[in-house]
Amino acid sequence: MGVSLTPLWEAVMALLNFKKRDPGADQPVSPEMEAFLKGYSIEVMPRTATKVEDFRALLPAGTRVYIAHIDGTPIEDMVATAKRIAEEGFDVMPHFPARIIKDEATLADWISRYQGEAGVKQALLLAGGVAEPKGDFHSSMQLLETGLFDKAGFTHLNVAGHPEPNLDIDPKGGRANTYAALDWKQEFSKRTDAEMALATQFCFEAQPVIDWVNELSARGMNLPVHIGIAGPAKLQTMIKFAIACGVGPSLKVLQKRAKDVTKLLLPHEPGEVLADLAAHKAANPDFNITKVHFFALGGIKTNATWAINNGGASAQPVNPQG
Fold first, then answer.
1. Residues 162, 201: contact at Cβ < 8 Å?
2. Which UniProt keywords apply (predicted)?
3. Model confidence, pTM
């Protein structure tokens, strides 16, 4: 019996089509998706930001741009990136990873630099990606307890959320530690003048997100949820980041896709999970996801183009003289 060439032929055609197409172009956009993507944010790093000539050519005016602080990145690079993006007209929200901040004096210095050079008034506070603290802090709660952000007049203080159980936080499984931390942050939100929200890790399936958000509401946790979404990227890239970031059960969506050779050649796009969440939000207006936050795993331009083609607002015209 001869070997069928159909799967190979389909794979080749899929690759050719991928090279030709403009992701999301010429596809109908639902009003639900437009509403859901309104005011989305996006995350960059100093090294990825240098590859963007002008963010105004890619992002809607006033977009919130998170700046991820990876261990080993000098604070000077972080501040310079914040200054550049702020000068282009965007709201900048740098990460403050507790476990790489040496002490309170270092935290105060970072805050002073961000404010003095880039006018920063927003921050994402999180534990950080290193296993062992390099100084006095190991959690975002300790950063909040210093009172330095309130003293500096920060207007927005976001903290991390995890739609799926995370073994780094709850090594025995479940959500006991996660929910204890969220309870503390909920109470802290009542004592600060800053607006607070949960900026979450990304996942690839809508139902775990829906269940988690509903569970938070049932527990009386009402901090707005800014849901993390992985932007378009090669499947291999997506799986690598998902494993590194501790993505849980929804990782099976990628694993299933990886078994199909015709899909292995195509980028993974977030259209399905976003459409499901947008539809749920439209049917349940009180559902507590208020923003979408993109992790640009496949590149900032790729992510921004996808967002525009799929219901996000258009980028602002750039004045070459401005």
1. yes
2. Oxidoreductase
3. 0.85
